[in-house]
Amino acid sequence: MFTLGHRTAGEPHPPLLVAEIGANHDGDVVKAETMVRALAEQGAEAIKFQLYTAAELVADHDRDVTWGPAGRQRTERIGPMFDRLSLPREAVRDLMALGEELGMVSFATPFSEDGVDYLESVGVPGYKVAASDVGHLPFLRHLARTGKPVILSLGKCTLSEADEAVETLLGEGVASLSLLHCVAEYPAPIDEMNLRAIPLLQQMYPEAVIGLSDHSLGSTAAIAAVALGAGIVEKHVTPSQDDDGPDHWFSLPIAEVGALTRALADAHLALGEPGSARKHVVGGEVAERRTAIRSLILARAMSAGERVTAEDVKIVRPGTGLAPRYLDAVVGMALSEDLPANTPLTWDSFK
Question: 314-334 pLDDT, tens per residue?
Fold first, then answer.
């Protein structure tokens, strides 16, 4: 199991949906606060921020990046873009405090050792590590030494790189770990989601709760991931997919967060009890078995002592008589009492 703040994920608990606010506040603290309140109204259980500056992320500040859907694409320099979309540390602190006040686990992704130290100073309950930092072992060591729970996205990496990251985190003291399968494309095409990696990761890392960092459009992949065993699903969220910013167009509208939370919980519930992979008659089917399956029914009125022929038996509902597989066994047997037509035959019906 994986515990972050007051919420535990992993069997037998329902999946945890992490609403990634990311850069979709567009660098506007007021907009970010509005998003936090809207997520609380949707019943969100966990929200996440990002703590970064352009200087912590890139050296080629003047490199052009193009984002947006076809027909609405925009090109800008990456350094100024990151600076435009970042929030002051104090704002992230206050937004996390607001989220906690509204009942949501609130945490962040730092992108530097200094960012980790700041988040430690304000009492963050745990950390998310971006896929871009799977190979940043010095950073992982620093973060792991906090002893806090860590969620690590395994995007853009090989299994050997994932192994190295996991060994580093566990070796430096992380006691609670979640690994999120991730396809780091924005958006991730549904045919490249490779969700069968989830049970593979479960086999490889039994000490971790496996989940999905989902950048695909819609909710299909998230629900399918839960069916494959995901205990945590992370999804970027936005006030509107029409907002002007690099991540809005592929993010989940906040108005749909409540519905997705319920869908993930229902998908988990539909799997049945953890560890109970068996086929059996469940509670509501018991009554159905009595009324809506076939059994051996007497086709005509017969007297005690008469021997039953195949023509004397019909196989129809209800299911309160002997199962159809006993037809050959009862043919030739004598009745123990007078029976009217349409009587369900039981072993007590015969001498």
Answer: 999 999 999 999 999 999 999
- Distance between CA 312 and CA 321 in Å, rounded? 14
Closest CA to 85 of 58, 125, 117: 58
Query: Is residue 261 pLDDT above 80, yes or no?
Result: yes
pLDDT greater than 80 at residue 275: no
Single-letter code of the amino acid located at 219 = S
> Same structural domain for residues 37 and 147?
yes
Q: Say what the pLDDT of residue 277 is.
A: 80
Ramachandran category for residue 68: left, alpha or beta (phi over 0 → left; psi -120 to 50 → alpha): left
Q: Other CB atoms closer than 10 Å to residue 94's CB: what's the count?
A: 17
| Tens digits of residue pLDDT in 111-164 | 999 999 999 999 999 999 999 999 999 999 999 999 999 999 999 999 999 999
> What is the DSSP code (8-state) at residue 267?
H
Helices vs. strands in the chain: H and E counts, helices first: 12, 15
**Cβ contact 168:139 at 8 Å:** no
CA distance 17 to 15: 6
- Give the range of the structural domain holding residue 246, as residue numbers without chain letter: 12-271
Whichever domain contains 204, its CATH number is: 3.20.20.70
Q: Say yes or no: 121 and 232 in one domain.
A: yes
Distance CA 247, CA 139 (A): 25
What residues contact 55, with CB distance under 8 A and at least 6 apart?
none
Same domain, 188 and 253: yes
Structural domain total, the chain: 2
Neighbouring CB atoms inside 10 A of 260's CB total: 23
